[in-house]
Amino acid sequence: MATVEELKLRVRELENELIKCKQKQCAMEDALHRPKIDKMSAEVVDSNPYSRLMALKRMGVVEDYEKIRTFTVAVVGVGGVGSVTAEMLTRCGIGKLLLFDYDKVELANMNRLFFQPHQAGLSKVEAAELTLRNINPDVLFETHNYNITTMENFTHFMDRISHGGLEEGSPVDLVLSCVDNFEARMAINTACNELGQIWMESGVSENAVSGHIQLIIPGETACFACAPPLVVAANIDEKTLKREGVCAASLPTTMGVVAGLLVQNVLKYLLKFGSVSYYLGYNAMQDFFPTMAMKANPQCNDRHCRRQQEEYNKKEAQRPKVEVVEVEEDVVHEDNEWGIELVSETTDADLQAASGTMPDLPEGITVAYTIPAAQDTTNGETVEETEQSLEDLMAQMRKL
Amino acid sequence: MATVEELKLRVRELENELIKCKQKQCAMEDALHRPKIDKMSAEVVDSNPYSRLMALKRMGVVEDYEKIRTFTVAVVGVGGVGSVTAEMLTRCGIGKLLLFDYDKVELANMNRLFFQPHQAGLSKVEAAELTLRNINPDVLFETHNYNITTMENFTHFMDRISHGGLEEGSPVDLVLSCVDNFEARMAINTACNELGQIWMESGVSENAVSGHIQLIIPGETACFACAPPLVVAANIDEKTLKREGVCAASLPTTMGVVAGLLVQNVLKYLLKFGSVSYYLGYNAMQDFFPTMAMKANPQCNDRHCRRQQEEYNKKEAQRPKVEVVEVEEDVVHEDNEWGIELVSETTDADLQAASGTMPDLPEGITVAYTIPAAQDTTNGETVEETEQSLEDLMAQMRKL
C-alpha cells in the first residue's frame, strides 16, 4: 500500500511529465506559425520573407510590388494545378485567396505537388488553407467546399466572385479556372460573362504531356462558348473513370509548369509588367509552346457574351482616335461563319512539327481536348491540341 | 492537507491526461508516415499513390514506367529550383536521390515553393529529406551538407557521383545542377567531364524573369568550359550581396517553371519518351522559349572534355554507317575559331522580339548571364540571354 509521501512524489512526477508533454505540443504548434507582417519590407535580412520579391522593384521589373496585397484572386479547383497556383500566389503575398473545390485529398494525388500523405481524407480546400496559412499568415483565405455546377452553389459562387474582394462587397480581381472537366469550365464561363469578370483558364491533357493557359476578357477575347473549345479536357467525370478501373495520367512536372506559367501571367496582369499571353500552350514531348489570340464571336451562344461584346464595341468606338488609323482593330474577320480571328504567332510548320503521335487509349478516355457537340456534350470528337488549324476545326464544326 | 484518497484520485487523473497527451503526439507523428510500397501498381484506387503515373503506360506515353525505381539522380543545390526538382522526382517515385547543399533554410526563402517557415534554421538538405521522406518513403535519400567547391568536399562529391548509385559502387544516372553561382557550376562541369557523367544545368536570372535548362553530354555537346557561358548566373556570391544590403530577385513562378521543365526532361531522358531538349530558355516577360544545341569545342580548356571528345569521335567513327550519308554530323563548324556550332530553332527576329528592356541595376548586380573573362572571373560583361547571336558573342570574346 502506497504511503502519502510516495503518492505525493508520483503526483509531482506525473505533473512534470505532463508539463513537458504539453510544452512539446505547444512547440510543435508554435513552430508552424510565423507572426503576421504589417508592411512589406525590402530589407535584405534572412528573416524577411518578402526581400526577394521587393527586389523586383530595384531590378526594374515591377514598379510597385506592394500593390500585390491589394488584390483578390479566386482559384476554382484545388487539384494538381490549382493547389500549386494557390501556393505560388500565397508565397508572392497576394491579398486574399478564394478557394473552391468539393474533392477530398487521396493518396492517389501524391504524384502531384502540394498535398502530403497525412492530409489524406481531409477536404482539399481545408487541407490547402491549413498549409497556406502556415506558409504565409499575411494572406486572407476564404474557402468553399462545394461543387460550383449545382444551381444553388452556382448562385453562391456568382455572389462570392462579385462581392468577395478584399473589401467585402467589392468583386475579386481575377478568377482562375484550374478545374478538370467541361461542366465546371462552362459554369465559370457563364458566371464571368454575366459579371464581365476577367478570368484565366488552365488545363492539362489526360495523357499528362500537354497543357495550356488562356486569358478571357468578356466581350473582347473569345469566351469558352465563342470558339470550338480547343482547350477543353475530355468530358468524362472522375467517378466514371474510377468505376471503369481507368484513370487519366498526370505528372507533377506538367502541372507545375502550367501552374507556373499561369501565376506568372497573373502577376504580369495584376502588377502590369511584361506582356500577358492570350493563349499559351505547352507540349512536353517536344518542349514546344504555341501562342495565339482569338477575338470574341458575335454569334456566340452565350447572350451575356454578346452583351459584353456590344458594350466593348461601344466603348471602343467612343475612344478618341489618337493614332493615325487603328488598323482594322474592330473589323470582324469574315473568312469563317463564326467570325473568329485566329492570330497565331507560330507557323503551320511549327504546329505540325509539335504534334505528337496519338497514343492508343482505352475506351472512355480521349487524349487531349474535345469539341463537344452543341447539345450532346458527352460525345465530343477528339482533337490533338496543336494538330489542327482553326480552319480544320471550322470544317469539322460545319459537318456536325 | 491531502488525504491518500485525494492523492490517488489526482494520480489517476494525471495518468489519464498524460496518456491522452502521448496518444495525440503519436497520432501527430503517425500521420506523417505512410507505409512503404514494394511494387508499383497501376490499380485505380484512391489509396494508390502511383496510379496516375502508371497510367502513362496505358496512355502510350511511357513504355515501362516502373523503371523509374532503378534510377539514381544527384541534385546539387537544394534552393528554389533544386528543392522543387527533388520534390517532383520524389513524387514520381525515383529510386534514389543524392542531395548536396550547405545552406540553411531562412524566412527569406519563403517566396519560393517547398520550404516552410517552421523549417527556418535547419540545413536545407536535412529539412528537404524530412519533407521528402514523408511524401514518399519508397525513395532512398543520401544527403551531404557541404560546399562542393572546396578541395576535400569536391573529392568526396566526385566519389559519390561515381559510386553513390542505387547499387552502392555504381555511378548515379544523372547529375542536376541547381546551383546559383559560377564556381559551383564549374565544379560540377569539371567532375562530370572527368567522369564522363551526363548532367543537366539549370539557372534563373537575377531579375527573376528568365531561366534555362541545358543537357550536357561530355565529349558530345558543349560543356560549361567549351562555350562562352551564355547561361551563367552573375558571379557574385550571396554573402557579398547581403553585405551590400542588396539581393537578387526571385519568384516561385519562374523557379517552378524551370524545375518543371528540368524534371520533365529528366523523365524523358531516363524513361525514353519524347525528345530531350539540349538547351531550352524561358523568357517570362514575353512567354518565349528559345531552343538550341551546341557541339563540344575541340579547343576547350578542360583537358577531360577534350579527352571525352576524342573518345566520342572514335566511337562515332567506328559506328557502322547504315544510312545513306550522315550529313556533316561530325564536321567541325569552321566559321568561328572556337569551333562551336550553334543550331538555333528560333529566328533572329524571334530572338530580337523576345529581348526585354534592360533594367536599371544597382552596382554589383548584373541582369542575366555573364561572360567571365578568361582569368578574372569577377568582372564579366553582361549579356541579356536572348539578345545576342553567337556571332556577336564571338566578336565580344575576340575583343577581350
From TrEMBL, chains A, B:
InterPro entries: D-isomer_DH_CS1, ThiF/MoeB/HesA, ThiF_NAD_FAD-bd, Ubiquitin-activating_enz. PANTHER family: UBIQUITIN-ACTIVATING ENZYME E1, UBIQUITIN-LIKE MODIFIER-ACTIVATING ENZYME 5. One of its GO terms (molecular function) is ATP binding. It comes from Mastacembelus armatus. Keywords: ATP-binding, Metal-binding, Nucleotide-binding, Ubl conjugation pathway, Zinc. The keyword Chloroplast does not apply. The lineage of its organism: Eukaryota, Metazoa, Chordata, Craniata, Vertebrata. This is Ubiquitin-like modifier-activating enzyme 5. One of its GO terms (biological process) is protein ufmylation. Residues 50-301 form the THIF-type NAD/FAD binding fold domain. Belongs to the ubiquitin-activating E1 family. UBA5 subfamily. GO terms for cellular component: cytosol. The keyword Transcription regulation does not apply.
